[in-house]
From TrEMBL:
PROSITE patterns cross-referenced by the UniProt entry: ANK_REP_REGION (PS50297), ANK_REPEAT (PS50088)
Keywords: ANK repeat, Repeat
Keyword ATP-binding listed: no
SUPFAM superfamilies assigned to the protein according to its UniProt record, in alphabetical order: Ankyrin repeat
GO MF assignments: transcription cis-regulatory region binding
PANTHER family: ANKYRIN REPEAT DOMAIN-CONTAINING PROTEIN 39, ANKYRIN REPEAT DOMAIN-CONTAINING PROTEIN 39-RELATED
ANK repeat boundaries on the chain: 14-41, 43-75, 76-108, 110-143, 139-171, 172-200
One GO-annotated biological process of the protein: positive regulation of transcription by RNA polymerase II
This protein's name: Ankyrin repeat protein, putative
Membrane-crossing segments per the record: none
Annotated GO CC locations: nucleus
Length: 200
């Protein structure tokens, strides 16, 4: 079904407004027919995702308060939470989760969850703590291996305290301890040994 010319115009203008952080224009267009959850761009990104990618908390909060779907996925299967985590934006991460963002939702390409991005991109303990405290799966797709590879003892300790398996074997047949040995990280080696890591 084709959009009307007015609908098409609103669609393009509201994407431009959100992309350029124009709060008042975004607000005006939503009052005059823009559909908060239907207006997606060519990459299937929602208005909320664009606002989050731009680190714009004001527009993010406005969209959510007006019914934006916090778990809407783009063409890669990513939700707005993925982008808040990638941007290292603790405030928006907390806001989205408090409004129902799923911390264990997987993207389409490789099945990663937001926790993978928290560790792989930023290694930010504060964001990892937020995700863990809201039930993020600490044993999903070798998260502990990634953390050991990043040499972040504090996050390794945090993950183990929340149930991460120190015996887990990754796709290459390695345990977290073996990765710590390869990295010559004695502090993490000791931490893993204290938690019963497999050494052979």
């Amino acid at each position: 079904m084709k959009r009307s010319s007015k609908s098409c115009e609103i669609h393009h203008v509201i994407h431009s407004a959100v992309s350029n952080n124009y709060f008042e224009i975004t607000e005006l267009l939503l009052k005059h027919g823009a559909k908060i959850n239907k207006e997606k761009n060519d990459y299937k990104a929602s208005l909320l995702q664009i606002a989050v990618e731009n680190d714009n908390k004001e527009i993010t909060e406005f969209l959510v308060s007006n019914g934006a779907d916090v778990n809407s996925k783009n063409g890669e299967g990513k939700t707005p939470l993925f982008y808040a985590v990638e941007n290292d934006n603790k405030d928006i991460v907390e806001f989205l989760i408090s409004h129902g963002a799923d911390v264990n939702i997987s993207e389409l390409i490789n099945g990663k969850i937001p926790m993978h991005y928290a560790i792989d991109n930023n290694n930010n303990k504060d964001i990892v703590e937020i995700l863990v405290s809201h039930g993020s799966n600490v044993n999903k797709y070798n998260i502990i291996h990634m953390t050991v590879q990043k040499d972040n003892k504090d996050i390794v300790e945090l993950l183990i305290a929340h149930g991460a398996n120190p015996h887990q074997i990754n796709l290459f047949g390695k345990t977290p301890f073996q990765i710590a040995v390869e990295n010559q990280n004695f502090e993490i080696m000791e931490l893993l040994l204290l938690n019963g890591a497999i050494t052979s």
